[in-house]
């Protein structure tokens, strides 16, 4: 469990750092270009790590290839959109959107994958939604 907590905190710090750098120093760079550079860097980095560890196994059937293509396309659209709109709305407005991501993932898991929600997950969803509403109300005042 400690490893998961450390990885989650590392991911949160890394993503927050990307948002801060984007908001402070890369405002003049078009969002699509920023996204292209970031995704290219990640592809090279993760591709290199996967190649060194021999961790890549291609899909075995057309369903797997179609799923892989959909993930790549939807991920590229989502992140390109995010980094195009980040400078227009500012980091604080986007923070609320990004906090809704785990709630959406949980709901999609229930609807699409027929997963069940545990009581602690329900509490977590409630905390996220209350925080988002409180953040939105605080901004208005």
Structure description:
This protein is mostly helical and 141 residues long. 84% of the residues lie in helices and 0% in strands. It is built from 5 helices and no strands. It has helices at 2-24, 31-53, 62-89, 91-113, 119-140. Helix 2 (31-53) packs across helix 3 (62-89) and helix 3 packs antiparallel against helix 4. The longest helix is centred in the middle third of the chain and has 28 residues, at 62-89. The chain is globular, with a radius of gyration of 18 Å. The relative contact order is 0.08. The model has no long low-confidence stretch (mean pLDDT 81).
Indicate the overall shape: globular
- Overall mean pLDDT score? 81
Query: What is the first-to-last residue Cα distance?
Result: 40 Å
Oligomer: single chain
Q: SSE order, as H and E? A: HHHHH
Q: Name the beta content range.
A: under 5%
Strands, count = 0
> Number of helix segments?
5
Radius of gyration: 18 Å
Give the helix level as a range of percent: over 70%
Helix/strand structural class? mainly alpha
Main sheet makeup: none
- Low-confidence segments: none
